[in-house]
Amino acid sequence: MSGRLPSDGMPHEPLPDPESEQLAALLGDGTARLVYGLLYRRRPGPPTASEIGFFLSAAASASMPADRVIRSLRTHFDITEIGRDGDTRYELRGWAPQHTATGLPALSLQRRAQALAPGICFQCGRSPEKHGVVLEVDLVVPPEWGGIADPENLQPLCEDCLKGKRQYQETYASYSEQIRHAADFDEPQRRIGELLLALRNEWVPSELIGIVASAKEYQTDYEKRTRELRLLGWDYRVRKERGEGARTRVYYRLIQSAPWPENIHAAIVSEEKRRRTAKGRKSAGSDGTQ
User: Fold this and answer.
1) 3-state class of 31 per DSSP?
2) Which of 1, 16, 67, 179 has a C-alpha 20 to 30 A away from that of 201?
């Protein structure tokens, strides 16, 4: 999930099934997808160029030579030529190294267009038409922190903002392991709590908490998710500092943790109800009513 490369140089992300929507978005419904399906099914016994050519002829796709199809597939996949039984065969081994080498998983043209559709940089608001900037697709949560190429995790940034964001994230490179650990949990409250716990001796900036909170789905109000930790028995200190200009930066530091309930959402709802009931009784008592 993290997009990092293991020791064999291949991405962790598994290969898509030939009938999957992921592959259709990546390759469409043309010849390349047909050949991918053949290579996928023949991984135990990779086909030769002649076998691929025969397959294309049988599929009425002979207009595109086998070597050209292989070249197009290598944009996304690692297809290695191996010698076996005196023949050169084409073995599908995984995603191509460039699938993650740029810090972005391979994106289909459709997914890229969807991400860039707003037409403005999400950080500075500049556009190609008015300001001459070039927009790039960015992962809100980067692959090294567990981000994946879901539409909700993609945004357009201009080259300057993208460069600045990456430089900013590099300042937390030493915490990548803790961030990946926290980002792996399903509930946003737990992602935030696990980050604070992993960095319990640090003042954690709110920007980093927001990124981790949105690791699996975007959170419009990560501050509320953070406050909900107190309903689960957690506590923290808050520090505000003036930054550049009038901007105030907020930092959090954990001072108390608690075991996670089996159902975090239900526990929060139950504690909110208990507190409302207690507040209502106190208010009724102060009014002299029973």
Assistant:
1) helix
2) 1
